[in-house]
Design goal:
Radius of gyration: 31 Å
Structural class: alpha+beta
Number of helices: 13
Distance between the termini: 64 Å
Helix content: 25-40%
Order of helices and strands: HHHHHHHEEHHEEEEHEHHEHEEEEE
Number of strands: 13
């Protein structure tokens, strides 16, 4: 069916004089062909509905989707980088049909169609599944810290925001007074009718600085208001949403990117970006969206609840210990999750012990737990009794056991040198 759209003519299969088509310059199994064929299969009606009927013709949605999706595949996320590759990279040239939208058009398309692109993401996943690239039975979830375009030095507490705002306001007043004084002095020196209302170069520079400083004061006020309305302790002036993130051995200002991939070909089945500083709060929302996407891919015509499918649709969810928490384990005990997923999540405390690689005579791993009497027995034969509990890392309830006879123990100093005696904490 012919659709009359206000778009530029687009055909990346057009024959050249050489006589190859552009795609012939790429290997037959090149990823660009997969992206090209996948996008050709999805419904573009939602994109067509947003094309204006008048004005300069828009670039074809198929073109823009292909270069964005292929860009994601080859880790080219910048619209400027994509524009550059439209001039130099054969795969991008092929997918664009030799058209060259600039970075502003590329970025604006993504911004304008962010919802449609998310929906198309599921459509492409469905095609990957039909091609046998996914099994949708084993899903691994992990995260990556992405540094924001914001300096750690720009992180402010509410007190620091108020202090800096006060300093800037005082500096502005000082500049204004100095500018007025200079005006009066130069009026006397040159005459008030000289140079109209144009100020000397140094005063104009000061005015520029004052304008900039007033903008910063307003920025500080807005940041202070936003900080008061949130639960955050600090806020970044450059990027208000960015937070301190631990990335291995360093601390950066940025975000966490959550990704769920199918185990067969590492196809991404769900992703998200969050300002949260821990993965724990992201596990259940990610699992919900993974199940929703998988059910939509495998059963597109099934309109019943996402969690009511058969046991054949069970999914193994694999994560690292960063997603382990008491609240997550409790949530996964709900019937709707037990019916659909099989989680593999290592315990944080166990992982920490394993990393320590200790093999000491009185390592806590060598203490034996007596379940009947709810107590631990140390390698020296002494007993550690339960005394209290606390809430540990990841919302886990941690029980505390303490030895009461350590002062007369012959192993004191070898087992522990604490004046409170040996203590064991267990979840």
């Amino acid at each position: 069916m012919s659709i009359n759209l206000n778009v530029r003519p687009y055909n990346n299969k057009e024959q050249l004089l050489f006589p190859e088509s552009i795609g012939d310059y790429l290997p037959k199994d090149h990823l660009a062909h997969v992206v090209d064929e996948a996008v050709d299969e999805i419904d573009l009606t939602p994109y067509y509905n947003k094309i204006p009927g008048v004005g300069n013709p828009s670039y074809h949605p198929a073109l823009m989707i292909k270069i964005w999706f292929y860009g994601y595949c080859v880790k080219t996320y910048s619209s400027r980088k994509i524009e550059e590759k439209l001039h130099t990279d054969v795969a991008f040239i092929y997918l664009s049909g030799m058209q060259k939208p600039d970075f502003k058009a590329i970025s604006e398309f993504r911004r304008k169609h962010i919802k449609e692109l998310k929906d198309s993401f599921v459509d492409v996943l469905r095609i990957c599944h039909r091609l046998g690239m996914t099994e949708l039975g084993n899903i691994s979830i992990d995260s990556k810290v992405m540094k924001a375009n914001a300096s750690i030095s720009k992180m402010y507490t509410e007190k620091e925001l108020i202090e800096e705002q006060k300093e800037l306001e005082e500096a502005i007043q000082e500049y204004l007074e100095k500018a007025d004084q200079t005006d009066e002095e130069e009026d006397k020196k040159y005459g008030s009718d000289k140079r109209g209302n144009e100020l000397p170069e140094d005063i104009r520079d000061k005015e520029t600085r004052i304008k900039k400083m007033k903008q910063i004061v307003e920025q500080l006020k807005q940041a202070e208001q936003k900080l008061q309305n949130s639960e955050k302790k600090k806020i970044n002036l450059t990027d208000n949403d960015a937070q301190f993130q631990k990335d291995k051995s360093r601390i950066v200002t940025g975000y966490r990117v959550e990704i769920a991939v199918d185990s067969k070909e590492q196809i991404i089945v769900e992703n998200d970006v969050t300002e949260e500083q821990s993965d724990q709060s992201q596990l259940i929302p990610m699992i919900d969206r993974v199940i929703e996407n998988i059910d939509e891919i495998k059963h597109p015509n099934n309109k019943q609840s996402t969690f009511n499918n058969t046991e054949e649709d069970n999914i193994k969810i694999i994560t690292d210990s960063g997603y382990s928490s008491g609240s997550n384990l409790k949530s996964l005990e709900e019937e709707k999750y037990k019916r659909r997923i099989e989680p593999y999540i290592p315990d944080q405390i166990y992982e920490a012990k394993k990393r320590s690689k200790r093999n000491l005579p009185f390592d806590k791993e060598r203490f034996v737990f007596d379940k009947t009497n709810d107590e631990f027995i140390c390698p020296g034969g002494n007993k550690l009794h339960y005394i209290a509990y606390t809430v540990g890392r990841g919302d886990q309830i941690v029980r505390i056991y303490r030895c009461n006879v350590f002062k007369g123990c012959k192993y004191f100093g070898k087992c522990t040198s604490s004046q409170k005696g040996q203590i064991i904490k267990v979840s």
